């Protein structure tokens, strides 16, 4: 499932604020890149394997 479809699917839960990274890491088959309001970013552990 694409990130666009996941974000648009109302049956999906959105990740909790401060626990988002841990929550996303717990999901099989999902990787994420997050950009914070201050411009910093973080990625789940397998994100870089996806290529660019």
TrEMBL record:
Domain of life: Bacteria
Region (Disordered): 1-22
Protein known as: Uncharacterized protein
Annotated organism of origin: Streptomyces doudnae
């Amino acid at each position: 499932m694409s990130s666009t479809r996941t974000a648009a699917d109302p049956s999906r839960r959105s990740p909790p604020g401060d626990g988002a990274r841990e929550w996303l890491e717990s999901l099989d088959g999902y990787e994420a890149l997050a950009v914070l309001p201050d411009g910093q970013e973080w990625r789940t552990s397998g994100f870089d394997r996806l290529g660019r």
